[in-house]
């Protein structure tokens, strides 16, 4: 049993694992987008740049300050999340009364500025980030070798997604958040500081993107374009899943990652486009998205 | 019987009476139009480099096409590079490999842009607002990846050494100045066409959809059909602009189908003024000029463009022409 449909098993499982890892990033990023969109009604175009900032922040912490991966995992989301809070306070909050499209244009512009600054500073070629020693090496699973770090990314990302879901669905804070998504004016009337909640939610969404960046740093090379290339695919993922359900965006993210991985095995030419094609099919069959409620 | 009774409260809206305006151009707009046409006629003799002017006109037409959607139907397409770039590839391929004359190559580019717009528009108009923007962006990325792999686009190299050919098989266009007149004609025709569309009965419905779509529906208009047709027209004009650009520069590359090109046309229209007649042209002129002068600054151009985006959205939402119009209390 070394082959399946004429495909060597190690290759198949290797691509499946890569697909799962991509799926983990899709899931984390679309989760952040969905949380932000739910409360702010802004689609955060800066998300890709913030993901990239997360990876660079981890690199800077390691190479400039000698802070290792584990501390970066905690510090980077806090730092980048704080920049997100400043951004929301200074700029994004001015646009809530206008057409939602202005929020999109503003965050797109901010993303361009961030990406351009990093490209000036670090060039377009990637910087390497070493896998932390605790997670280097590989396990022999019998049918394939599994690099420890890759397994860690999948497990950790799944845990983060689950934790986010628990916070939103099972805690009092999450209940307030969901209520404010439905009807901010009423929630404010109950004495909850909705503007502060909006600011913190944006910060949390950005922190999720930055955490994804730290996770990605040892896998992909750290470069200024890493976010913008990813974010367009994540937009397609968001359209496919619909932004109505947290669990829905997580499942869609992982699922599409796996489909993309399998496409690489069976029909590599289509691997870059398969998610967009799925998006078209979903739009034709279920315009609101797989888990969406409203059109 | 039902056809005979007229329910009370329903007003029959009379056809718009001509207010003495020519082709829908109001008096100040007519002045601006004449200024523009005179500029087009004089510019190449006033020391402005024809290739630069042609680039400006191609992007001006592209921005006008984009403005047709955002300014008058309220649809933000974030993937217009797909139609622009594909128009360029098709025209380049037709002119170079098939030896098609330039006027046909440009029309072919427009036709393919419109066809692509018909398919993508049909998919994308199922969703609105932010989703519409994300879907059009994702679809244009699909086109980008197809262009990376498809054999006829030449991949990373693009299509190079595209001949300008002979207009109608008679007039050689290899001299920049002769090509300039062709580009200027294409631009003026496209510009007037956009204006005509906007001021036609069809355009009135477009604006009604922008203002209040449920109401337009309740008045009996199939809004999706109108949106789709507007999308096709816009994509077709973008294709014409892209085709013209590839003939001017003799090259069609991946840059023109990349998402950053979609962002650029949004920026041009925003800077000039969304929903203004002359705004997209002015916006394109500003951005193209800026890119020309800052070319050696490398990635700082991206930073500056992003900064302009932010400034426009936060403080300057009417754009240059919109602000001037507000100052003079006229619609430009």
From TrEMBL, chain A:
<keyword id="KW-1003">Cell membrane</keyword>
<feature type="transmembrane region" description="Helical">
    <location>
        <begin position="149"/>
        <end position="168"/>
    </location>
</feature>
<keyword id="KW-0813">Transport</keyword>
<keyword id="KW-1133">Transmembrane helix</keyword>
<dbReference type="GO" id="GO:0006865">
    <property type="term" value="P:amino acid transport"/>
</dbReference>
<feature type="transmembrane region" description="Helical">
    <location>
        <begin position="42"/>
        <end position="62"/>
    </location>
</feature>
<dbReference type="GO" id="GO:0022857">
    <property type="term" value="F:transmembrane transporter activity"/>
</dbReference>
<dbReference type="GO" id="GO:0005886">
    <property type="term" value="C:plasma membrane"/>
</dbReference>
<dbReference type="InterPro" id="IPR052157">
    <property type="entry name" value="BCAA_transport_permease"/>
</dbReference>
<comment type="similarity">
    <text>Belongs to the binding-protein-dependent transport system permease family. LivHM subfamily.</text>
</comment>
<keyword id="KW-0029">Amino-acid transport</keyword>
<dbReference type="Pfam" id="PF02653">
    <property type="entry name" value="BPD_transp_2"/>
</dbReference>
<feature type="transmembrane region" description="Helical">
    <location>
        <begin position="266"/>
        <end position="285"/>
    </location>
</feature>
<feature type="transmembrane region" description="Helical">
    <location>
        <begin position="232"/>
        <end position="259"/>
    </location>
</feature>
<feature type="transmembrane region" description="Helical">
    <location>
        <begin position="12"/>
        <end position="35"/>
    </location>
</feature>
<feature type="transmembrane region" description="Helical">
    <location>
        <begin position="68"/>
        <end position="87"/>
    </location>
</feature>
<dbReference type="InterPro" id="IPR001851">
    <property type="entry name" value="ABC_transp_permease"/>
</dbReference>
<feature type="transmembrane region" description="Helical">
    <location>
        <begin position="200"/>
        <end position="220"/>
    </location>
</feature>
<feature type="transmembrane region" description="Helical">
    <location>
        <begin position="99"/>
        <end position="118"/>
    </location>
</feature>
<keyword id="KW-0472">Membrane</keyword>
<keyword id="KW-0812">Transmembrane</keyword>
<protein>
    <submittedName>
        <fullName>Branched-chain amino acid ABC transporter permease</fullName>
    </submittedName>
</protein>
TrEMBL record, chain B:
<feature type="transmembrane region" description="Helical">
    <location>
        <begin position="178"/>
        <end position="198"/>
    </location>
</feature>
<dbReference type="Pfam" id="PF02653">
    <property type="entry name" value="BPD_transp_2"/>
</dbReference>
<protein>
    <submittedName>
        <fullName>Branched-chain amino acid ABC transporter permease</fullName>
    </submittedName>
</protein>
<feature type="transmembrane region" description="Helical">
    <location>
        <begin position="31"/>
        <end position="52"/>
    </location>
</feature>
<feature type="transmembrane region" description="Helical">
    <location>
        <begin position="59"/>
        <end position="84"/>
    </location>
</feature>
<keyword id="KW-0472">Membrane</keyword>
<feature type="transmembrane region" description="Helical">
    <location>
        <begin position="265"/>
        <end position="290"/>
    </location>
</feature>
<keyword id="KW-1133">Transmembrane helix</keyword>
<dbReference type="GO" id="GO:0015658">
    <property type="term" value="F:branched-chain amino acid transmembrane transporter activity"/>
</dbReference>
<keyword id="KW-1003">Cell membrane</keyword>
<feature type="transmembrane region" description="Helical">
    <location>
        <begin position="104"/>
        <end position="123"/>
    </location>
</feature>
<keyword id="KW-0812">Transmembrane</keyword>
<dbReference type="InterPro" id="IPR001851">
    <property type="entry name" value="ABC_transp_permease"/>
</dbReference>
<feature type="transmembrane region" description="Helical">
    <location>
        <begin position="228"/>
        <end position="253"/>
    </location>
</feature>
<dbReference type="InterPro" id="IPR043428">
    <property type="entry name" value="LivM-like"/>
</dbReference>
<feature type="transmembrane region" description="Helical">
    <location>
        <begin position="130"/>
        <end position="152"/>
    </location>
</feature>
<feature type="transmembrane region" description="Helical">
    <location>
        <begin position="297"/>
        <end position="316"/>
    </location>
</feature>
<dbReference type="GO" id="GO:0005886">
    <property type="term" value="C:plasma membrane"/>
</dbReference>
């Amino acid at each position: 049993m070394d082959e399946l449909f004429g495909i060597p098993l190690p290759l198949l499982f290797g691509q499946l694992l890569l697909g799962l890892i991509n799926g983990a990033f899709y899931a984390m990023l679309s989760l952040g987008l969905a949380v932000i969109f739910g409360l702010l009604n802004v689609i955060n175009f800066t998300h890709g740049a913030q993901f990239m900032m997360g990876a660079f922040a981890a690199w800077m912490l390691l190479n400039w300050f000698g802070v290792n991966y584990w501390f970066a995992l905690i510090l980077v989301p806090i730092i980048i999340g704080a920049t997100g809070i400043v951004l929301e306070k200074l700029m994004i909050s001015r646009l809530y009364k206008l057409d939602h499209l202005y929020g999109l244009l503003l965050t797109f512009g901010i993303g361009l500025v961030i990406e351009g600054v990093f490209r000036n500073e670090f060039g377009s070629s990637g910087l390497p980030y070493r896998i932390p020693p605790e997670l280097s090496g590989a396990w022999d699973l019998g049918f394939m070798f599994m690099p420890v770090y890759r397994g860690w990314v999948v497990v950790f990302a799944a845990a983060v997604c689950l934790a986010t879901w628990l916070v939103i669905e099972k805690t009092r804070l999450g209940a307030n958040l969901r209520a404010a998504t439905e009807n901010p004016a009423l929630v404010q009337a109950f004495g909850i500081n909705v503007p502060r909640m909006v600011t913190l939610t944006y910060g949390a969404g950005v922190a999720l993107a930055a955490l994804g960046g730290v996770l990605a740093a040892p896998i992909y090379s750290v470069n200024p374009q890493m976010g913008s290339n990813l974010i367009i695919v994540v937009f397609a993922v968001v359209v496919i899943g619909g932004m109505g359900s947290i669990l829905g965006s997580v499942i869609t993210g992982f699922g599409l990652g796996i489909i993309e991985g399998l496409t690489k095995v069976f029909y590599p030419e289509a691997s870059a486009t398969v998610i967009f094609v799925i998006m078209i099919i979903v739009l034709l069959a279920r315009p609101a998205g797989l888990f969406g409620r409203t059109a | 019987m039902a056809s005979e009774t007229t329910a009370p409260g329903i007003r029959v809206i009379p056809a718009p009476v001509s207010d003495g305006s020519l082709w829908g151009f109001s008096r100040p707009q007519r002045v601006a139009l004449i200024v523009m046409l005179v500029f087009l006629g004089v510019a190449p003799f006033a020391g402005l480099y024809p290739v630069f002017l042609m680039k400006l006109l191609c992007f001006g037409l592209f921005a006008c096409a984009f403005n047709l959607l955002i300014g008058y139907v309220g649809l933000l397409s974030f993937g217009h590079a797909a139609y622009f770039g594909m128009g360029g590839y098709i025209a380049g391929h037709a002119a170079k490999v098939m030896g098609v004359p330039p006027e046909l190559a440009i029309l072919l580019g427009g036709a393919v842009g419109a066809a692509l717009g018909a398919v993508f528009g049909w998919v994308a108009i199922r969703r609105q607002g932010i989703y519409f923007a994300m879907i059009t962006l994702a679809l244009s990325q699909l086109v980008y990846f197809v262009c990376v792999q498809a054999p006829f686009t030449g991949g990373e190299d693009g299509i190079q050494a595209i001949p300008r050919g002979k207009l109608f098989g008679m007039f050689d266009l290899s001299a920049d100045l002769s090509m300039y007149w062709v580009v200027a004609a294409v631009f003026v025709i496209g510009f007037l066409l956009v204006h005509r569309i906007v001021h036609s009965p069809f355009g009135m419905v477009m604006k009604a959809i922008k203002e209040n779509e449920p109401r337009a529906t309740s008045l009996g208009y199939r809004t999706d059909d109108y949106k789709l047709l507007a999308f096709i027209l816009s994509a077709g004009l973008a294709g014409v602009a892209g085709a013209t650009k590839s003939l001017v520069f003799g090259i069609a590359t991946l840059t023109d189908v990349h998402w950053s090109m979609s962002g650029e046309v949004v920026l041009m229209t925003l800077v000039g003024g969304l929903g203004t007649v002359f705004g997209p042209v002015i916006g394109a002129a500003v951005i193209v000029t800026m890119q020309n002068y800052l070319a050696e600054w490398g990635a700082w151009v991206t930073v500056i463009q992003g900064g302009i985006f932010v400034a426009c959205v936060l403080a300057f939402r009417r754009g240059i022409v919109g602000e001037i119009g507000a100052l003079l209390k006229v619609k430009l």
